[in-house]
Amino acid sequence: MSTVQERQDKLEPLLRASPVIAIVTIDDVAHAVPMAQALVDGGVISIEVTLRTHAALGAIEAIRAKVPEACVGAGTVLTPDDVISAERVGSQFFVSPGASPKLIEAMEKSDVPWLPGSSSASEAMSMFERGYRLQKFFPAEPAGGVDFLRGLAAPLPKIKFCPTGGIRAQTAANYLELPNVICIGGSWLTPAAMMRDKDWKGISALAKAASPR
C-alpha cells in the first residue's frame, strides 16, 4: 500500500499537465470517447468525470480504453462505495468536494491519488496534517474566490489548491496567477449544449483556449 505522500507525488504531475482540469458531467456513454479526444486534441489531458449520472462509470472505463493520452479521474467521490466503483473502472485519480472520516479511511486504503476538497483554513490545515498538500478549493467563488485564496497563501504556503466552482473562462487567469494555485477545475470546457449537439470541434477549441501551451 502506497503512502499519502507517494500518492500526492503521483497526483502533482497530473494537476500540472494543463492549467485547467476539465470537469465533465456525462449523460451518454457514447459521448465519452469523442469528448475526451476533443479535449486532448485541444491540449487538456486531465479529465474529471463527475459521478453524478448513471453514465459516469462507463464513461471513465471507455476513456481509459480508447483515449490513452487522457488522464481520467472520478469526481464527486462521496462514499467508500464510490471509491470501490471508480477504482474498478480504472479511475486514475479521485476528487471530492470535501472530506469525511469514512471517506478518508476508504481513500487511505486505495492506491489511487486523491484530491480532497476544503473550503476554510481549518479544513485545509486538517487535511495538510494528514499529508494532503494538494487540495481542491470548493466551491471556489461562493467560498471567497481569488481574495480568499490570496489570503491563505502566506500562512499556508505549503498547500497548493485546485479551485473549482463558479470559475469561468473570463476569470480563470485571476486564479492561475496566484502562487498557491496549481491548476483550476472548469466545467465551461464541455458545455451541455455542445455535448448534446456533439460539437467536438467546439469543445476542442475551448480546450485550446484554456491551455495555450
CATH superfamily: Aldolase class I
Structural class: alpha/beta
Report the strand count: 9
Strand content: 15-25%
Low-confidence stretches: none
Which shape, going by the Cα principal axes?
globular
**Main beta sheet:** 4 strands, parallel
Note down, in words, how this protein is organized.
This protein has 213 residues and is of the alpha/beta class. It has one domain: TIM Barrel (Alpha-Beta Barrel), CATH 3.20.20. The protein has ten helices and nine strands. The protein has helices at residues 4-16, 32-41, 56-66, 80-88, 101-107, 121-129, 145-153, 172-176, 192-197, 200-210; strands spanning 20-24, 46-50, 71-75, 94-95, 114-115, 117-118, 134-137, 160-163, 184-186. Helix 2 runs parallel beside helix 10 (200-210). The longest helix has 13 residues, at 4-16.
